[in-house]
């Protein structure tokens, strides 16, 4: 992968911006439909991740900040990768542990990489 520009691994600032947007959307939906129930907010966040990563190439927040989630070996990301990635993401700790390639543990386990589009 290139070191910078399109196709390079997404850096921390964009990742944090994307997840903040996704969480804000989940909170908004939770406020509108579930009177801000914490479990409902988490469930909405999970559904947004699992639905939008395989359909539009990333979550709404990721796409807004110029990132895409792709399968490391290429091709369609499928449904299981976003599900595994999101399950680990909601645990938070795997997302806070990175390797030298700037990939979070949740991405490594799912075989995905978050790249600049």
UniProtKB/TrEMBL annotation:
It is found in: Cell membrane. It is a multi-pass membrane protein. InterPro entries: Pra-immunoreactive, RDD, UCP021697. GO terms for cellular component: plasma membrane. Residues 40-111 form the RDD domain. Its main location: membrane. Pfam families: RDD (PF06271). The keyword Ligase does not apply. The chain crosses the membrane at residues 12-33, 39-58. Keywords: Cell membrane, Membrane, Transmembrane, Transmembrane helix. This is RDD family protein. It comes from Cryobacterium frigoriphilum. The lineage of its organism: Bacteria, Bacillati, Actinomycetota, Actinomycetes, Micrococcales.
């Amino acid at each position: 992968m290139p070191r910078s520009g399109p196709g390079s691994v997404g850096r921390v600032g964009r990742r944090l911006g994307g997840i903040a947007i996704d969480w804000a959307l989940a909170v908004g939906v939770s406020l509108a439909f579930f009177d801000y129930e914490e479990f409902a907010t988490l469930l909405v966040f999970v559904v947004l991740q699992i639905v939008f990563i395989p359909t539009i190439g990333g979550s709404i927040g990721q796409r807004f900040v110029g990132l895409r989630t792709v399968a490391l070996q290429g091709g369609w990301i499928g449904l299981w990768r976003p599900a595994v990635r999101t399950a680990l993401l909601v645990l938070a700790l795997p997302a806070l542990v990175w390797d030298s390639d700037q990939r979070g543990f949740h991405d490594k386990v799912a075989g995905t990489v978050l790249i600049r589009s």
